[in-house]
Write a structure and sequence with these properties.
The chain is an alpha/beta fold. 40% of the residues lie in helices and 23% in strands. Strands 10-9-11-12-13-14-16-15 form an 8-stranded mixed β-sheet, with helices on both faces. Strands 2-3-4-1-5 form a 5-stranded parallel β-sheet, sandwiched between helices. A 3-stranded antiparallel β-sheet has the order 6-7-8. The chain starts with 10 loop residues before the first helix and ends with a helix.
Length: 440
């Protein structure tokens, strides 16, 4: 059992849970395995105790535990019913609930039968499928959890960012560890780009060999439990080839931020000799590859992003892109390399926009592309991402699509080297690392 006092806060998500406390919807925390969902449940339980909820009003069950592994839906119901205190508000926490067959009926019964507030986690989007929505008649709210942001990475590893005056009147930023050792901010960012943001790496420290072992465990668990085992539980036979699954995982990892279609994945795997013919004739069908890609999206291993035509104001059915949930997992899969670092930082920006609550699409304007259109209810942000804005050629390339957009919403270019100019005719040029750690 983890000591809750040692848990690092994830305020972004904890505050969202607290905002829905004692409201009718079931709170569903989703995200890839080991991104911190179990810890978030513990943090919420700790918060309840801090505001006066008694320990016996809180029921916690982790279905990864052997204690509950073979529990039926009926046994699950009676286990909770036996612990409900009459005339008291109960708080029910169920971790990795998808492992219980017909759990939907049981949770719906708790909601109807008891005075309770329900929190559940799941590592697969199947948890929130249309079938589940039907059971709860829309009475659930999803909290989407991601691995650590760069700001959280600094906090988890006990780094402190301090600013000081430079000799030329500006400010300089340095990072200090808990021993007072000083680092350049870029050094620490490079460590984030190498190790990624899976919280468990904090336990082993920034040690490459140990981190790779941990990431291997996460990868294996996602593939075996959340994809291959789940298919068996659903009684379906779509995802049956672990070799093909791994090859598609590697292909997507190698092509983050690139425009690809499902049919091109199958064709490329065959053309490059990565997919043997075996009993298949030619490449696997687009339908087969799509099933495998969908399984990876459902397990939150990859996220897909659609294109939006800015002038026509409509989503397009043409090629989309895929991003991997954690850049450390990509390094585990492909090894460390610098040749496509532009796509890697683009990957980081995409997930930061999601954390900040934006809906994100790729922008198309005439024949040009805007990396991201980020929208909220009454807010829109156009974002280009590049490694450097020093070269005149790169500046022209990155600014051209934004200059074609006629509305007055904010337009920014994020880069690791902004050059000397802070803006270009109203388009802001911002340092990517500073943007990632800015206080919001």
């Amino acid at each position: 059992m983890i000591d809750t006092h040692e848990l690092k806060k994830r305020d972004l998500y904890l505050n969202r849970l607290i905002a829905f406390r004692d409201t009718e919807p079931v709170k569903v925390i989703t995200g890839i395995r080991r991104c911190g969902k179990s810890s978030l449940l513990k943090l919420m339980a700790e918060h309840l105790k801090e505001i006066g909820v008694e320990e016996e009003q809180i029921i916690e069950m982790n279905f990864e535990s052997y204690e509950f592994k073979k529990m039926s839906a009926d046994e699950f119901y009676h286990y909770v019913k036996d612990r409900v205190i009459p005339d008291k508000r109960m708080y029910l926490f169920f971790d990795e609930l998808q492992r219980i067959t017909d759990w939907e009926d049981t949770v719906n019964s708790f909601r109807v039968d008891f005075n309770c507030d329900i929190y559940i986690t799941g590592s697969n989007a199947y948890l929130l499928s249309s079938e589940y929505s039907t059971y709860l008649s829309g009475r659930c709210v999803e909290i989407k959890m991601l691995p650590l942001s760069f700001s959280e990475f600094l906090y988890f590893y006990d780094f402190e960012v301090k600013e000081s005056r430079s000799a030329f009147g500006g400010t300089r930023t340095h990072v200090y560890d808990k021993n007072g050792e000083r680092y350049e901010l870029r050094e620490v960012f490079d460590a984030y780009m190498r190790f990624g943001g899976m919280p468990g790496i904090t336990d082993v420290g920034l040690d490459q060999e140990k981190a790779m072992v941990l990431l291997d465990g996460i990868y294996s668990t996602v593939v075996v439990r959340d994809i291959l085992e789940r298919e068996k539980r659903r009684g379906q036979k779509r995802i049956t080839d672990p070799v093909l699954l791994r090859k598609i995982i590697l292909f997507l990892a190698d092509n983050i931020g690139s425009s690809i279609s499902v049919s091109s994945i199958g064709n490329t795997l065959v053309n490059e000799g990565l997919l043997e013919d075996r009993k298949r004739k030619g490449s696997p069908s687009a339908h087969t590859v799509q099933a495998y890609v969908n399984a990876l999206l459902e397990s939150y291993f990859y996220y897909d992003i659609k294109r939006f035509d800015i002038k026509a104001k409509e989503y397009l059915r043409t090629l989309g892109k895929y991003y991997i949930v954690d850049i450390g997992l990509r390094n585990y899969l492909l090894g460390f390399r610098n040749r496509d670092s532009g796509h890697a930082i683009e990957n980081v920006v995409y997930f930061e926009l999601l954390r900040r609550g934006y809906d994100v699409a790729i922008g198309k304007v005439d024949n040009a592309e805007v990396d991201f259109i980020a929208t909220k209810t009454d807010e829109k942000l156009y974002v280009q991402v590049t490694e450097s804005m020093v070269s005149e050629e790169v500046r022209r390339r990155e600014l051209a699509p934004l200059q074609k957009i006629n509305d007055n919403y904010e337009k920014i270019v994020l880069s690791l080297d902004t050059g000397l100019d802070a803006s270009y005719n109203g388009i802001k040029s911002l340092n990517l690392i500073n943007w990632l750690i800015e206080k919001r």
